[in-house]
């Protein structure tokens, strides 16, 4: 049977349509490949550009297959007929994922005493300074709950220094958070050991009373102690026999105030040298102005913050100068004061995410624990006297009271596998050899996709030029 011209024309048109659709499908698949390879080249370029960026974590991109069309479904076969596989055609590829490799990198020595890196997993926590409450004359802020930790900026770059106000900052002027050494409110230099040495509670209380300073578990910006004011008889810094209780410039540690939930407060500058007089002046100043309609009183609160916990000792606003400052393997920041004392400012806190690779890169060397990171927990590299944020302690529920256990998210973990290495920073994790190899394969993949477009274009040209 001969084909009619009309039938032949219809078959040619249908064939031309099928060929055109298949070729344009190949072209669009190639275009998807071009876009994906360009994205990968951007990732490679960013990695290579940051080959000398301290703390940089290299990214990795993966491809994924794009959608498929099924021209014939698969079959398991029947009684008389065998089965067949499905026939499917894909439409190129797309970006599968762009991941961060948060594995620790190598140590790059700098020789700077306060430069440090985390030899292990985790992040330094940085943020803003505490805010000063003008009404109550106290410093407010810090973190006392595990639910508040996620607001902190995270970084792997430990380029720290001491700013003019005595805060431990990084080079972007963000303050380093940790656990500060504070004066011990339970300090009693005349404490006597209990008669029953087997009484654990009594022995613990005695051991605590003998410590002049302790570590607070209120997570705060770390700041060097302030400088003690000149001792006088009026402020009881000089005894009647002429003996000095403290010397001018001695380190003065923050005061652990129970009235404000255990926050770390620094002594505020003022003209008052007597604690009770300062409090009274505050009250008098709030009642009525002095003669002439002007209130000449200076309401200030001077906290009992002296190293020896003398309640009348006061601190100047000037931070104490520390020499030869360094960071220990346990995260302790310490230096030597003018009087020769070794002063431990505090301990750097380390944040650990459930999924370190899931943190969100926000800007520069900083990350946030957002979706994908899971819970963010606070760790230290040294044992602390209490194991919960905000100086919380678990109670046994004596005298019929219910036992109280702080929330599990408030617990402070003690990290055993991570250490701090000082005098250097973490090098970039970019592997130049691997990046160049990936660059070659990416370039060839891009080139192959352009060839598909060129060939498809040539075939479409031939199709358009077909004649009857």
Describe the model:
This protein is α+β, with helices and mostly antiparallel strands and 468 residues long. The protein folds into 2 domains: 116 residues, no CATH class; 218 residues, no CATH class. The chain is 21% helix and 28% strand. The protein is built from 4 helices and 29 strands. The strands form 8 sheets. Strands 7, 10, 13, 14, 20, 21, 22, 23, 24, 25, 26 and 27 form a 12-stranded mixed sheet that branches. Helix 1 packs antiparallel against helix 4. The two termini are 21 Å apart.
What is the strand and helix layout of this fold?
Layout: H1 5-49, E1 59-65, E2 68-72, E3 87-90, E4 93-100, E5 107-109, E6 115-119, E7 123-127, E8 131-133, E9 138-140, E10 153-155, E11 158-162, E12 168-170, E13 175-183, H2 200-209, E14 213-221, E15 226-228, E16 251-252, E17 255-257, E18 263-265, H3 275-285, E19 315-319, E20 323-327, E21 332-336, E22 342-348, E23 350-353, E24 360-363, E25 366-368, E26 376-380, E27 412-414, E28 419-422, E29 424-426, H4 432-464
Parallel strand pairs: 26-27
Antiparallel strand pairs: 1-4, 2-3, 5-29, 6-11, 6-28, 7-10, 7-13, 7-23, 8-9, 10-25, 11-12, 13-14, 13-22, 15-16, 15-19, 17-18, 20-21, 21-22, 23-26, 24-25
Helix pairs in contact: 1-4
List the main descriptive attributes of the protein structure presented here.
4 helices; elongated; about 475 residues; 2 domains; 29 strands; four-stranded antiparallel beta sheet; disordered N terminus; twelve-stranded mixed beta sheet; alpha+beta
């Amino acid at each position: 049977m001969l084909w009619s011209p009309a039938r032949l024309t219809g078959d040619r048109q249908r064939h031309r349509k099928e060929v055109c659709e298949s070729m344009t499908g190949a072209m669009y698949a190639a275009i998807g490949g071009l876009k994906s390879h360009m994205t990968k080249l951007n990732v490679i370029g960013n990695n290579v550009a940051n080959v000398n960026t301290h703390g940089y974590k290299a990214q990795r991109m993966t491809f994924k297959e794009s959608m498929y069309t099924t021209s014939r479904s698969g079959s398991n076969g029947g009684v008389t007929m065998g089965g067949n596989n499905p026939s499917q055609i894909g439409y190129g590829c797309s970006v599968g994922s762009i991941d961060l490799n948060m594995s620790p990198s190598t140590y790059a020595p700098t020789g700077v005493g306060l430069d440090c890196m985390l030899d292990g997993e985790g992040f330094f926590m940085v943020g803003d300074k505490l805010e000063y409450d003008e009404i109550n004359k106290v410093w407010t802020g810090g973190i006392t709950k595990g639910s508040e930790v996620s607001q902190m900026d995270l970084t792997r770059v430990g380029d720290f220094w001491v700013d003019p106000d005595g805060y431990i900052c990084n080079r972007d002027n963000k303050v380093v958070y940790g656990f500060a050494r504070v004066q011990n409110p339970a300090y009693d230099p005349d404490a006597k050991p209990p008669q029953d040495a087997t009484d654990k509670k009594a022995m613990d209380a005695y051991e605590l009373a003998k410590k002049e300073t302790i570590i607070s578990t209120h997570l705060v910006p770390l700041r060097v102690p302030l400088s003690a004011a000149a001792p006088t008889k009026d402020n009881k810094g000089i005894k009647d026999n002429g003996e000095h209780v403290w010397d001018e410039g001695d380190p003065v540690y923050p005061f652990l105030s129970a009235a404000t939930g255990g926050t770390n407060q620094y002594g505020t500058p003022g003209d008052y040298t007597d604690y009770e007089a300062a409090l009274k002046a505050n009250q008098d100043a709030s009642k009525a102005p002095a003669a002439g309609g002007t209130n000449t009183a200076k309401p200030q609160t001077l906290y009992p913050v002296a190293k020896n916990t003398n309640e009348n000792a006061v601190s100047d606003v000037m931070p104490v100068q520390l020499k030869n400052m360094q960071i220990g393997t346990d995260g302790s920041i310490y230096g030597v004061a003018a009087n020769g004392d070794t002063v431990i400012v505090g301990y750097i806190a380390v944040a650990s995410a459930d999924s370190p690779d899931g943190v969100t890169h926000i800007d520069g060397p900083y990350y946030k624990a957002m979706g994908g990171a899971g819970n963010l927990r606070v760790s230290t590299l040294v044992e602390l006297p209490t194991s919960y944020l905000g100086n919380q302690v678990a109670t046994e529920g004596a005298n019929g009271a219910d036992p109280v256990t702080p929330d599990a998210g408030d617990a402070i973990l003690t990290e055993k596998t991570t250490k701090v290495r000082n005098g250097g920073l973490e090098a970039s994790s970019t592997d130049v050899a691997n990046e160049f190899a990936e660059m070659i394969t990416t370039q060839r993949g891009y080139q192959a996709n352009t060839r598909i477009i060129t060939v498809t274009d040539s075939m479409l040209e031939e199709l358009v030029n077909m004649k009857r």
